[in-house]
Amino acid sequence: MAATEASETKTGGYTDIREYLAALDEHELLKRITAEVDLTHEVGAIAARVLERGGPALMFENIKGYPGMSLVVNLVGAPAQLGVAFGTDAEEPQIYAKIVQGMQNRIPSRIRPTGPVKEEIHRGDEVDLSAFPTPWWHEHDGGQYIATTAGLITRDPNTGNLNMGSYRCMIKDKNTVTWSGGTRTQRDPGGGDHILANEAKGLPTPVAIVLGMDPYLSLATGTPVPSDEEGQTEYEAAGAWRGAATSW
After folding, report:
1. 133 within 8 A of 39, measured Cβ to Cβ
2. What's the rounded mean pLDDT across residues 184-193?
3. Per DSSP, which regions of the chain are E strands?
């Protein structure tokens, strides 16, 4: 993706990951890696080392075994990136103020009948997760984790409230992933609660995993966003940070 002209680049209010990547590129906060990289440990090691040093975001454009595909990491891992996302200086007090303001002034989400997410649908045995370039991030991981900062969405069967959290999801086979909502004694106060609530009713827990989100939804997955009196949670906080309602 070519960077947009400076006069066309906006700061804040990005509606999708493409707009955000273009802005990071324009602000020299996106590094393109053209050398071949291996998904087994190498991508994870590079990403971790760069993150420890405060950025930038990385786009791997030459992945072994995946010609023509790319992988982006570390998109909201440094204050400079969050400053671009929120339209502020890269100062932690300003970024924190934006986060708190959004959580206190949420914008209701809205349901759409359809969208780009439904343009291509695969079900059952049609699904092949190996089609995605998924890293084996760390040496002692049990496998490839397709979701590390992705949004994993569940619903409370009693209230109907949604939760979107950041959970590690490991690929088990071509069309199965595993994820953990904690244990019965140390459960996650979101997805874990929903698992137990469904289990009490003898029901499975439907789950949606969202990859390639805009920076506001990505941030919301890792931010404790308690439900308000209207049942508004991560979707609505992300809408406030974006300046426009989250559609789903």
Report:
1. yes
2. 75
3. 30-33, 57-60, 71-73, 145-147, 151-155, 162-165, 169-173, 176-179, 208-210
pLDDT tens digits for range 145-165: 997 768 899 999 998 888 998
Same domain, 85 and 152: no
- Domain of residue 208: give its range: 112-242
Within this chain, do residues 56 and 75 fall inside the same structural domain, yes or no? yes
User: From CA 107, how far away is CA 169, in angstroms rounded?
Assistant: 29
Which long-range contacts does 189-198 make (Cβ < 8 Å, 24+ apart)?
190/154, 190/163, 190/165, 191/152, 191/154, 191/163, 191/165, 191/167, 193/156, 193/163, 194/154, 194/155, 194/156, 194/157, 194/163, 195/154, 197/156, 197/157, 197/158, 198/157
Domain boundary among 69, 101, 133: 101
Closest CA to 166 of 41, 77, 44, 50: 77
Asked if residue 171 is part of any domain, the answer here is yes
Dig out the tokens for 186 from the structure. Answer: 């140390």
